[in-house]
Amino acid sequence: MTSHPEVEALAFFAEGLLESDEERNVARHVESCEECSEALDELSNVSQVLAAAPAPELPPDVADRLEQQIAEAVRDRAVRRPEPTGAPSEPESAPVADLSEHRKRRFGLPRIMMAAAAAVFVIGGGAAVVNGILLQDDEQTDAAAPLMDGQAEEEPGPDAAQSYAPELVRSGTAYTEDGLAEQAAETLDRSPVGGTAESDPLPAETTVPQGAESCASGVGEEIGLRVVLVDDALYGTGPDPAWVMFAPDGDSVEVMVVEAGCGQGDDVDESVLAQETVEAS
Amino acid sequence: MESVHELTDRELLTKHAEGDEQAFAVLVRRHRERLWAVAVRIMADPEEASDALQDAFLSAFRAAGRFRGEAQVSTWMHRIVVNACHDRLRRRKVRPSTPTEGETLDVMANEQDVRSGSTHDHASRTETRIVVRQALEDLPHDQRIALTLVDMLGYRVEDAAAILEVASGTIKSRCARGRSKLLPSLAHLRNPPHPRDVTSERGGANPS
């Protein structure tokens, strides 16, 4: 007579997880061993006891707390994603506070939410949704990479080829979230990099703001592309400058709006204000 | 303009990611009872379940743009809730749950019995709850979570596997290991004073 199998082996047996010869052995043993067949019953009884253990329904106050929390998150997001300028229909959401104020607001969240908020900071910083898009595009980039082998790599943009430092322009544009794609395309056209616009070309600036280059390389690393153009401009209605970074990716150009000064110690991620993909002309 | 209430989960999530202000709340209202059931069983503590659920909905709110659409939205939300619970279980190690927290669960569950007109023997049911909770507390988290989904809540192995992003075989072996570890502490509940109470409860919830 074989020795009793371990309880764990019996549990695996019950789930059909044993190798066939082992399974045969256990089956034969259980057939003739009352103790082990009882243990098998007890194992299925464990499932039954667990299934029978009751738990309370969702208490109304918890449901209320969830509603409040979401309402708060919606308000918080509305502040960070301003309405397009020119449509300030809701007085409350009107002038958009600068970034530092948003940060304070986030730290003002109830303590209970801090852990989750902090977790989002790591990847999301001021714009988790924007970063979500960023991550998605990252994956697309990866997926598309094999197709572009030997094509994109050997033929970088005609004007971008020589230098690893991005061109800098000052278009004076106040980029908005809704207009970003169009505004970015226009800047690109007028820039020394795009250079397809006949009129109103933007000169390449030589006075590069401090940190812009390291920021550009940080952004480039982040998205796995190379930033070839930086527009030292504004974003939203806030007074703080924003750098709009352009990184060609095959037939399109990734546009990242970051807080000016992102290279100074912060994670690049935390400085991203918006992101967009535009077609290269 | 279509009502947000008629949209699918996926449409709601997309709308939310695009900036819609109602969509996410609708999504939460749709799933919160179910996700509460998951959280409160994993945590075995309403207070902590509530915290975990809030953590989870907040991360889901912010991560909506990252949802890839490969999974069901509800699977994705389950995953976020389970992860939030897992985080809290890990942190709990240094701060074991106090009897008071457990009692809250018992009291709340008892109230529920009363409301539903149940005539169960509360004393024995309360004992069962306490024993089950204690026993789960000693399990490795992955086994505990697998057992919560499969045995306690009756999820199909495949669904639990999708939620936890592991193979079905992994769920089965986690459950098997968990059950064999629970056996010594739960075996004495085998012949409870009111055996029919136990059997009548298990039917729908336990597919195995």
From TrEMBL, chain A:
Keywords assigned: Membrane, Transcription, Transcription regulation, Transmembrane, Transmembrane helix
Keyword Transmembrane helix carried by entry: yes
Region (Disordered): 75-101, 184-214
Matching InterPro entries: Anti_sigma_zinc_sf
Transmembrane segments: 112-134
Protein name: Zinc-finger domain-containing protein
Organism of origin: Nocardiopsis kunsanensis
Automatic annotation (TrEMBL), chain B:
Domain of life: Bacteria
Domain called RNA polymerase sigma factor 70 region 4 type: residue spans: 132-182
Keyword tags: DNA-binding, Sigma factor, Transcription, Transcription regulation
Pfam families reported for this sequence: Sigma70_r2, Sigma70_r4_2
Domain RNA polymerase sigma-70 region positions: 27-93
GO biological process, one term: DNA-templated transcription initiation
Positions of the UniProt region annotated as Disordered: 186-208
Record has Transcription regulation as a keyword: yes
Signal peptide residue numbers: none
MF terms (GO), sorted A to Z: DNA binding; sigma factor activity
Coiled-coil portions: none
Keyword Nucleotide-binding: no
Protein family membership: Belongs to the sigma-70 factor family. ECF subfamily.
PANTHER family: ECF RNA POLYMERASE SIGMA FACTOR SIGM, RNA POLYMERASE ECF-TYPE SIGMA FACTO
Protein name from the UniProt record: RNA polymerase sigma factor SigM
Native source organism of the sequence: Nocardiopsis kunsanensis
Lineage: Bacteria, Bacillati, Actinomycetota, Actinomycetes, Streptosporangiales
